[in-house]
Amino acid sequence: MENERIYTIPLRDVTNKVPTTKRAPRAIKKIREYLQKHMKSDNVKLDNSINEKVWERSLNKIPARVRVKAVKQDDVVIATLVE
């Protein structure tokens, strides 16, 4: 059974509430938590393209939002970046 969805994950609250030296790692955590909640799975694997997009402008200048395509296969969610 395959379940595929596209999400726009907001990261603005990470920018506002987290010190600049911890923003990118916290954004990756937030993306993972968002997908766990919405796809109802504890096993979430993020593609390298998501990591590169978040870290693109260094540690403290993360994007405001990220569009992600999530595919669920046998209780494993694999997320990739949507261009």
From TrEMBL:
InterPro entries the record matches: Ribosomal_eL31 (IPR000054), Ribosomal_eL31_CS (IPR020052), Ribosomal_eL31_dom_sf (IPR023621)
Origin superkingdom: Archaea
Keyword terms, alphabetized: Ribonucleoprotein, Ribosomal protein
Record keywords: Ribosomal protein included?
Answer: yes
GO aspect biological process, one term: cytoplasmic translation
State a GO cellular component annotated for this protein: cytosolic large ribosomal subunit
- Entry's Gene Ontology molecular function annotations: structural constituent of ribosome
Which family does this protein fall into?
Belongs to the eukaryotic ribosomal protein eL31 family.
> What name does the UniProt record give this protein?
Large ribosomal subunit protein eL31
> Which organism encodes this protein?
Methanococcus voltae (strain ATCC BAA-1334 / A3)
What gene is behind this protein? Answer: rpl31e
